[in-house]
């Protein structure tokens, strides 16, 4: 792969990562609102599941060849942190006391 192809691919990947991070931030209030129910039932309410699916988050680490986003790890870690903070899991997100 030449450097131009690698740079183009890198820009596409960072653009995808940025879009998925923005989508995660957009659904964070939905997750936060359902955090008590999730903790109590140990299940995702249907509307939270659908919000996550609609945001494309279930496809973040699936290879592109299989229809996923094959997201870079730093972007994926940012998504996990946003979700953890929305659920009130400060310690899991590295923001514990």
Q: What does this protein structure show overall?
A:
Helix 1 packs antiparallel against helix 2. Residues 1-11 have low confidence and may be disordered. The protein contains 3 helices and no strands. The chain is mainly α. It starts with a helix and ends in an 11-residue tail after the last helix. It has helices at 3-41, 46-54, 73-86.
Topology:
Elements (H helix, E strand, L loop, with lengths): L2 H39 L4 H9 L18 H14 L11
Helix pairs in contact: 1-2, 1-3
Features:
single chain, 97 residues, mainly alpha, 64% helix, 0% strand
Q: How would you classify the helix and strand content by structural class?
A: mainly alpha
Estimated share of beta-strand residues: under 5%
Overall average residue pLDDT: 84
Q: Helix fraction?
A: 55-70%
| Main pleated-sheet profile | none
- Alpha carbon gyration radius: 15 Å
- The termini sit apart by 46 Å
Low-confidence stretches: 1-11
How many individual helices? Answer: 3
Q: Give the strand tally.
A: 0
Query: Helix and strand string, N-terminal first?
Result: HHH
Form type? globular
